[in-house]
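Figure 2 data, in text form.
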Amino acid sequence: MKKRRAYLFRCCMALVLPVIFLFLNTPLYAARRALLVAVADYPQGIPSLTAPVIDAERMADFLHKRMGFEKECIAMLLNEKVTTAGLRAAIERELVARVEPDDVAFFFFSGHGTHVPDIDGDETDQFDEAMVTIDTDPARPETWFTDDVLRYHLSRLKTNRAIVVLDACHAGTGTRAFGASRVEGAKYVHFGFDKTASPSRGVVKSRAIRPASTNSQHLVMAACHPYEIAREIPKQGGFFTSALLEALNSVPPDTAFAKIHEDVQMAIDRLIARTTRPDLPQTPHFQGPIARNIGDFMEGASKEGGEKPASEVPMADPSSALVGNGAITVKLSTDQSVYIEGQTMTTRVEVSEDCHLRLYYKGADQRTFLIFPNAYQSDHFVRAGVPLEVPGPNAKFTFRMAPPYGREILLAVARKKPFDALQNGTKEGAFVEIADASIAAMRGQTADSERSGKGEAILIYEVKSKP
């Protein structure tokens, strides 16, 4: 009898052990980590919102109860903690460092959006979309959390399974949310950078949508198209977040994201119909593998899971392209940071080495001029430590502030070697108007090996109407 029992035990173990081994070596489901970011309480000068934190809390509840995210794997970054540096650090800490291949990464943002000048020349309309953090300063490009910055961090993820949800908008002047044409609940801040200009000057409102991730297998769900407004229901939730959660909570796991997109659009349309501005559409935009279903995307290794991410080499950090990384130190200043119509401006430049200098001006109307050298200051070679003022003492012109109002840009570019002759420039008075008005064109394409002979500085000031 004992021998029979021992035989049966050995047979059972022979069957069970391979199963146990297979169980231990096959993940039940992918690890899941989320970073939920929301800003409702903005500093003075930026209208506050009422629903972003509610959006984040509702999203956290959904991820835990319906999507299997452990509470300790859902990180929240709210209000005063959402500085640009803090947001970048949180993405690196919570997602980039902790998410492994085949894991699920989930990023959510609810707050204001805006648009800012494109510094590195990768946007056809010369503007970057940006999420507004509590320290976003229109005069300091290093504080802008642009789509390039988000794309950089997403390119560093080791997984193909990333979901990005953006409940904000980046509309241009045509749908400006604040001022005389304010739309209640709009999630957009206008910082004075206008997209309005004649198409003949090369600046037009773009309707193209660039992918938010360099990895085509990442799923991105955005509240609206770049030229539209995203709105919120005061103290209840964003139109997009509310519609998305409604859709996700009402379908089975085998539902494709394309069907979710349709349901979200219908839910948003119902919300808009009850507003005072039903004429302003909000069209959610999904990018990535929208044919896949929710359960397949969220579960463990599938046939796509073992593939290398589409972005095998992470992008370069956009901060490396910011103005001011050259070896020549260029100090650029004006006598004021805010001007009222009718006031005059004096610009001052100082360099750390003898060099050739160009000073560009980009107005609120997007017209761009080379203002130094000019008809009265023709020598563009400047000496180290010797301040240069524009207009100079013998100049027969002044910079007098006039409409249109908004943010204007000064860009100083210094080089050890002489500049090439201007292309496509038209003389207008003491200055030359530049046909290609992009900041990247003014900076020029300088290889890293040539940075030892170059320096730059950018300055952004504001022009306002008389009180």
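Caption note: The radius of gyration is 27 Å.
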